[in-house]
Amino acid sequence: MRKRGVVLKLFVVTTVLILLVFSLVMLAEGLFFERFYRTSKIHALERNMNQFAEQFKSAEADEQETSRLLGAFMNHNDANTSILNKRFDRITVHPYFLELQAGSKTITIRIPMNGVTMEAIPQGLQIGDQLVVDGIFMDEEDTILHPAAIRQQHNNTALEEGLVRVKGKITDLMLPEQRSFNPLYQDVLIDDALRDWVPRSEPYESRLQSGSPVQLEWTDEWSGVRYAVLIRSLPEGKNGDRYLFVMTSLQPVGEAVEILKKYVVYMAPVILVLVLLLSLIYSRIVSRPLVMLNRSAARLAKLDFTVEPEIRSKDEFGELSRHMIAMSRNLDSALRELTQANEQLQEDMKEKQRSEQLRKELIANISHELKTPLGIVKGFAEGLQDEVASDKRDRYLAFIVNETDRMNALIMDMLELSKFEVKAVRLEMRSMSMTDLLQRVLDSFSQQLESKQLQVRLNHDEEDEPFVQADPRRIEQVVLNLLSNAIRHAVEDSVITIGVKRTSPGKVCTIIENTGPPIAEEDLSRIWDHFYRAERSRDRKSGGTGLGLAIVKHILELHESGFGAMNTPQGVAFTFTLNESRGDLHE
């Protein structure tokens, strides 16, 4: 079955969805955008006309405030606006004006709806700017000026006949702002719209008087531009009924829709290429974590926990990655534990087999070790039973006592060894001098040393004597067994060397070395076993019980000591280490 990658699927789905959404948006713009724009603009105008009506009632008495209110409404809504009387005739209100302070006189310059273009008014005028205006005064007090020319600077041009020139500082102003096309020309169009509407206004009068707005559409015959017309009544004041007539152009939206259609035709190939490219990039970005997780899962299936997926995002992919990392670590840990448990189980099985073999050897060795002295005891006892000669009676009894002592020593060692093997021995750790202990033990071997003409050399640092942390009684037992073994196997007239020294920080090593025959290399690791004798051919009289080194091994293991035996050029050396103690010496 052919594999379809997630990247390809995401790419196809994303491309189709984007193109579908883009097509729907373009279709909606072509069909509904113009209607939506008109509806939104008319609703906004109605809302602002209501606000204007509320403000007009308080400003009606002040002509200047009424002009300012009307001019602000026209600028804010980009609409041509006029106030009508009850006969739907325009009431003269100049929404745009300039107020100059010329000496001690304040002069108002009304910007007429006709006869003046936007180019005739300097741009960027602000309160405080100096202005030069040529025109005609319209009142007897020379305070209202009809402008003919407006300049920011006096350039010494000749004053036309019949005009006056006024120069002053702007103290107040209201000028067209944010208006499309020429607002002054559009304001003149109100007269044309009124001439077309007034003859047909009778059906709308009752509706206007009830306070409901009237919505119409008017087309300028000269330019062909369509306008939306809204009329509503104003609060009745001292001057009788008033109406607010608002006209706004619908040409911008029509032009925008036409341009948008052309734009789509030219931009469609570019948009298609961008959609394909961005969809490919998007699909790769989204699918990359999934591909990484898939590879990681494949490695986990092969029990490879070495590589972890590095996805650091704070989304579901990142959370899944962290869960997989945790699962990988847990599986790795569990597998390691299982491996260790399996290895431990195999070691336990080997140890069990070894213990079983040792048990069989122990039984055999015990039988052998007890059989010989029992046979000797039985032989001498039978001799005594047969009433041997009186001169042999004492010698037979001595043999019986000697073999009985040997069997008793063997049984005591076996009991001691069994305590260590079942972990029934508890150490009483104390700080002690290793040199003093060695000296006490050596004193107990004075007779054996003299009988073999042996000398003992004790090497230690008298000025900085090391102390160890150990159980004195058990370590004394270790030294007794090792010294007894060294004396037993030393050649006559030789030297036994005992050394005590620090080998590493916190460790004290004791070495007992004799001069004698070496131990075979294959026997060095087995001398610590039960009843194991390196000299299999020696007689029982010089052999001991065969359990001394096994007891030594258990005691040193309880002390967590390192120990061992090795051949030297002169003979054999036994070593063991103990933890150094800095505490006080306890006798």
Report the β-strand fraction as a percent range.
Answer: 15-25%
CATH topology label of the largest domain: Heat Shock Protein 90
- The Cα radius of gyration reads 60 Å
What's the CATH class of the largest domain, please? Alpha Beta
Q: From N to C, what is the helix and strand string?
A: HHEEEEEEHHEEEHHHEHHEEHEEHEE
Strand order of the largest sheet: 2-3-5-4-6
Share of helix among residues? 40-55%
In CATH, the homologous superfamily of the largest domain goes by the name: Histidine kinase-like ATPase, C-terminal domain
Poorly predicted tracts of residues: 536-542
Query: How would you name the oligomeric state of the polypeptide chains in this document?
Result: single chain
What is the distance, rounded to the nearest whole angstrom, between the alpha carbons of the first and last residues? 87 Å
Average pLDDT number: 79
Query: What is the approximate shape?
Result: rod-shaped
Task: Let me know the largest β-sheet.
Answer: 5 strands, mixed, barrel
Tally the beta strands.
16
Number of domains: 3
| CATH-scheme architecture of the largest domain | 2-Layer Sandwich
Coiled coil: 324-365
Pfam families: HAMP, HATPase_c, HisKA
Transmembrane segments: 263-282
Catalytic activity: ATP + protein L-histidine = ADP + protein N-phospho-L-histidine
